[in-house]
Amino acid sequence: MNSPSIRLGFLGFGEAAARLAVDFHKAGITGIVAYSRSGAKAKPGDALYEKAQSTGVTLVKTSAALAKKTDIIIALTPGKAAVPALRRILKHLRKDHLYIDASSNSAKAMEQAAALAGDAVRFVDASVMGPVDIQGIKVPFVASGPHAAEFRDRMTPLGMVINVVGKGPGDASAMKLIRSVLMKGLAMLLLDTMEAAQRRNILDAVIEDSSVTFNDIPFQKIIKRYVGGTAVHCERRVHEMKECLELLHDMGSTDRSTKATISMLREMVKMGMPQKFTSEPDSIHPVIDALIAARDAAR
Ligand SMILES: NC(=O)c1ccc[n+]([C@@H]2O[C@H](COP(=O)([O-])OP(=O)(O)OC[C@H]3O[C@@H](n4cnc5c(N)ncnc54)[C@H](OP(=O)(O)O)[C@@H]3O)[C@@H](O)[C@H]2O)c1
Questions:
Q1: CA 136 to CA 156: how far, in whole Å?
Q2: Out of 27-31, 96-100, 142-146, least confident range
């Protein structure tokens, strides 16, 4: 028997969908169905079949059957399969279907998928922001598009954590990728810093010192201080960073992030940032707006 309020299905039944199914099952959702190509062929005794059985999931043979038995579909396929999978199921979907594409994909691919869906289905761009196998149903989702709020409102009572962002489809996927600019960039900066510290045999001291600097400051304040401070002091910092570069060269340490920092600081000087910002602004918005305006004007 299906839950009276929700008929849930998964398109793709891999690691993420199977783990979410466990928690939806625990939350009392019955009659969950899933379609994947290997799932369609799975027989009793097969690992996939047994996994589905143990989580209260019925593996259906076609995407048409998935559409028929559901009102809400969460697609969790590899990114490159997302648009072809939507194309295949689309003719079977109803206008009142909520179709959440939670596959990791580019913002462009999500916009393409939304355009393909058109008015034929209520399409939601969603991004999974953490490891599903560890966090299960509590893994944070970000969602965008005109139907994202409906996704949030219908699924949060079941225990999902969904943050609606931006305006259109593509914004949620863009947010995940933009977050990677910070996280992966930060990792590179840490690696370059720690390499230099180790070459000088002061690694532990540098870890200790930078931890003291960052530990007690809320990250929002760090963003404000670092963005605003750079606009005000970029000219002076070019000279400081040149000395850093010299030290790195003397030690044979990598200079890639420091060269990028110097290049960014020089660009900000050229944009006239120190003249525009003589003291640290209250918010980073005017700095970012000035940066975008200068960059666009230079194109
Ligand atoms: N696992 C996580 O913690 C996590 C975290 C963040 C984001 N994500 C994203 O979530 C998506 C799913 O991740 P996953 O770890 O569950 O991947 P996975 O274990 O590789 O599972 C992918 C599933 O999609 C199915 N599939 C592939 N092509 C399909 C198609 N054309 N039609 C229908 N089903 C198709 C696969 O089965 P068949 O090949 O048999 O069809 C499989 O069941 C990915 O985009 C991933 O980047 C996952």
A1: 13
A2: 27-31
pTM: 0.90
Domains in the chain and their CATH numbers? 8-174 (3.40.50.720), 217-298 (no CATH)
Q: Is 86 in the pocket of ligand 1 (CB under 6 A)?
A: no
Please report the atom of ligand 1 found closest to the CA of residue 127: 7
**167-217: per-residue pLDDT in tens?**
999 999 999 999 999 999 999 999 999 999 999 999 999 999 999 989 989
Encode 113-127: b = buried (16+ Cβ within 10 Å), e = exposed: bbeebeeebbbbbbb
Q: Could you tell me if the CB of 6 is within 6 A of ligand 1?
A: no
Question: Tens digits of per-residue pLDDT, 265-280?
Answer: 999 999 999 999 999 9
Separation of CA 286 from chain center: 25
Q: To test ligand 1's pocket by mutation, which of 11, 19, 36 has the most ligand atoms within 8 angstroms of CB?
A: 36
Instruction: Give the residue among 88, 63, 177, 89 at the shortest CA–CA distance from 125.
Output: 177
Binding site membership of 83 for ligand 1 (Cβ less than 6 Å): no
264 contact partners, CB below 8 Å, separation of at least 6: none
User: Would you give the DSSP letter of residue 217?
Assistant: S
Hey, what amino acid is at 243? E
Pairing between β-strand 122-128 and β-strand 140-144 as defined by DSSP bridges: antiparallel
Name which of 225, 223, 260 is nearest 241 in CA terms: 260
If you take atom 5 of ligand 1, which residue's CA is the nearest one?
Answer: 131
The rounded distance, in Å, linking the Cα atoms of 175 and 139 is 16
CA dihedral sign, ordered 164, 170, 176, 178 = negative
